Amino acid sequence: MLIQLLNGLFWGSLIALIALGLCMIYGQLGIINLAHGECYMLGAVIAFYVISITGSFWLSLIIAPALVTILGLLIERFVLRKIERDISATLIATYAVSLCLQYIVLYFFGGAPQRIADPIGIIFNLGGTGYPAYRIFIIIMACILFAGFTYFLNYTRYGLWVKGAGQDPYLAKVSGVPIKSIYLITFGLSSGFAALAGVLAAPITAVEFRMGTDIIVLAFMAVIIGGFGSLQGTFIASVIIGIIECELTSIMEAAYAKVLLLLLTCLFIFFRPEGLFVVPKSARRL
Question: Does the reported pTM lie above 0.70?
């Protein structure tokens, strides 16, 4: 049970890193990015190439998120800039970007899953069972990044601008907030967050071109269950989803576990559509 709990915390921490980026653009700015999972995948793939060339996992932890952040800036500027207010157009455009990124990676990287070695390589003995220290490192990293992300969004000028642009973009614009720059930088940072999660996940999961497809569904679930625009709710919901999925997987096949998790999520949304944490009306996007 302890091992399953730690696995759930580890998996929930990865979901949280992706979901926090989604919470920033979906919960705060109202942009639905279906290519967010591919940013996660690109982080892992770029990390694989960086490690192959330099032999340093820690260097890939810097390079991969930086490159994907730049890609996010380009996507926002040249794909989404003129259609950000149109939800249908945004969905179609980001889905097209998702497919393009998948097949570009398939062409150059190939379809065979690849593995990255554990960068720490230390195994703890928990009740006679070995447990990688790297997974505990991911849990600690997620908590630190969540704390920093919360401070950034709530106590910095840029974070307040992001929240203002989400609540009322027109009023924010006439108040002097650089709306276009806010959307651009926020989308880029969100993409970089997803790539960071991909790099951290690479030594644990198989690196391949479809690895972002499943986890993006869990990330959207975390944002919705946590409460629209609630960072705290998103983080807690991610951990809960990770623990439940790991516990279900330990007693049934993975496919059945995912179906049951989706059913539980649907029931939760039916009975509590506002999510775990209700964001005040004054802070919701108009």
Answer: yes
